[in-house]
Amino acid sequence: MGVKKFLLKNFIRGDEAFHLARVTIHSRHDLSLHKHNFAEIFWVESGSGHHLINGRKITLEPGHLVMIRPDDQHTFTSARGGLTLMNLAFPLETLHHLRDRYFAGVDSFFWTPDVIPYQTLLAVSSIRRISQRAEEVLQNRKSCFYLDHLLLFIFRLLFDNDNLSADQKIPAWLNHAIRSYSTPAMFKQGVRGFADLAERNIDHVNRTVQRTLHKTLTDLVTELRMNFASKQLSITNTPIKTICNDCGFTNLGHFYKTFKEVYQQTPSAYRRSSQTIV
Q1: Three-class SS string for 62-97?
Q2: Which of 16, 70, 215, 278 could crosslink 219 through cysteines, CB 3.0-4.6 Å?
Q3: Which segments cross the bilayer (predicted)?
Q4: Contacts for 100 with CB less than 8 Å, ≥ 6 apart
Q5: Domain total for the chain?
Q6: Distance in angstroms between the alpha carbons of the first and the last residue of the chain
Q7: Do residues 76 and 50 lie in contact, with contact meaning Cβ atoms separated by under 8 Å?
């Protein structure tokens, strides 16, 4: 099978800095095997299929985000019903700028030495956020400003995802539950509410948390509650008793004790230090 080389100039007008589009692939014949003279990010919104990449066949499903390097050779197949994705193509000069400014020495993302390019599975809610931001960008000129705006938004989500993983591969459903478990309504439901959010049996959730994050589900819920409390103490004047209740604690003394175990100071002392003007 011949390999075509796609040129960015064939997809953009003279004053445009990037190409951004949503496409539904129904068969392998919709797109030939190809490589580029540009960098590409695509993310899967719906449907399923396979990514034929550098001689490998990798399953794609909603939530997958992939970064394609210029010399990667790839195409797609789809299951019945099609595979819908959005793709962003941009000049190598932008990629070099990102490398110099943000990713010097990094061997991940576009700069992985692996045969298979960088791929991650995000929560579908994160994919929706990326698509929504992309749609907002499409309402404006396809300039370098909006290209950087979208790329930095995507990388920010990926950094957050990697920080959660702590160098471990955690399931997308657990990642989603951790990100969504951040409101007083959820905190008041405790570990049971977290398991319901994950749509998994509580014992299964606990085992997965222990295996991937090396802590119990109870410890994880406490950590998320304390993180919420610290942010409220830092940026609001909400009474500490209200923050205690919002975190799902019914006993103020227990809240103080738990907070001090995590931050080595009381909530009131933490507020004073974090709200000090320097």
Answers
A1: CCEEEEECCCCCEEEEEEEEEEEEEEEEECHHHHHH
A2: 215
A3: none
A4: none
A5: 2
A6: 65
A7: yes
Pairing of strands 74-90, 56-60: unpaired
Q: Which range of residues forms the domain containing residue 269?
A: 193-274
Same domain, 212 and 259: yes
- DSSP string computed for 134-164: HHHHHTS---HHHHHHHHHHHHHHHHHHHHH
Q: Tell me the two tokens of residue 275.
A: 């709200």
Question: Which CATH number covers residue 134?
Answer: 2.60.120.280
Q: What is the pLDDT along the chain (278 residues), one digit of tens a residue?
A: 578 999 999 999 888 999 999 999 887 565 688 999 999 999 999 999 999 999 999 999 999 999 999 999 999 998 888 999 999 999 999 999 999 999 988 888 999 999 999 998 888 888 999 999 999 999 999 999 999 999 999 999 888 765 554 444 678 788 888 888 989 999 999 999 999 988 899 999 999 999 888 899 999 999 999 999 999 998 888 999 999 999 999 999 999 999 999 999 999 999 988 876 55
Place of tokens 């700069």: 111
Dist CA 134 CA 141 (whole Å):
12
Statement to judge: residues 114 and 24 lie in one domain:
yes
Cα 113 to Cα 118: distance, rounded to the nearest angstrom? 10
Query: Is residue 18 a contact partner of residue 101, using CB atoms and an 8 Å limit?
Result: no
Task: Tell me, yes or no, whether 198 and 161 share the same domain.
Answer: no
Nearest 10 degrees: Cα torsion 224, 129, 45, 184: 30
Residue 188, domain member (yes or no): no
Domain membership flag for residue 243: yes
Whole-angstrom distance, CA of residue 203 vs CA of residue 205:
5
